């Protein structure tokens, strides 16, 4: 899957270094919206950082440890989603995402994550997908909740971003719950 049209203006593309300029610009325009929850935002100070991340994600795809997608809305890059950890020993993947503020509130990320879950169970040897979020990050926690994940645990003070340490809510979805 290099680029897939999910309809109603939503497309997903495999993230490649050629997306670096568009994504760096998007992050730069959305720092206030993103930095409270995402540690990479403050670390992203130039396009080279984003390009290096995307190159590493492609290597990670070849090595079976990553899958990163760019979300396009009406033809323009609007966010990113992907597997940020694939634990082949325990057969667990964890999944993360962000959207530019102007693309929120339309159900785009929920639809995109639904497709990423399909791809993950089809293409990776994992039987469980996790999503981690801070309890106060209502919009983020609502995504796994909408998709039928189970809220399994709260790890105390285990999620660090932009000078805050939050609790970490662990949402889990099993292969048989999704496919069966
Ligand atoms: C997390 C994040 C991607 C969620 O964005 P979002 O727009 O709320 O999620 P979706 O795209 O799935 O859209 C859901 C919203 O669209 C609405 N919506 C409209 N049509 C919809 C549809 N067909 N299906 C589902 N929701 C729909 C929902 O009601 C919901 O809005 P509400 O929260 O006002 O009820 C976004 O808030 C973000 O990027 N936050 C900052 C970064 C971040 O926290 N990342 C996660 C770290 S753990």
Detail the topology: elements first, then pairings.
Elements: E1 3-7, E2 10-14, H1 20-29, H2 31-34, H3 40-43, H4 47-62, E3 67-73, E4 76-87, E5 92-99, H5 108-123, E6 128-133, H6 138-146, E7 150-161, E8 164-174, H7 175-179
Parallel strand pairs: 5-6
Antiparallel strand pairs: 1-2, 2-3, 3-4, 4-5, 6-8, 7-8
Bound molecules: coenzyme A (COA).
Q: What does this molecule look like?
A:
The chain has 180 residues and is α+β, with helices and mostly antiparallel strands. It has a domain at 3-126: Gcn5-related N-acetyltransferase (GNAT) (Aminopeptidase), CATH 3.40.630. 36% of the residues lie in helices and 37% in strands. It is built from seven helices and eight strands. Strands 1-2-3-4-5-6-8-7 form an eight-stranded mixed β-sheet, sandwiched between helices. Helix 1 (20-29) crosses helix 4 (47-62). The longest helix has 16 residues, at 47-62. It starts with a strand and ends with a helix. The structure holds coenzyme A. Coenzyme A is lined by residues 33-34, 37-38, 96-99, 104-110, 133, 137, 139-140, 142-143.
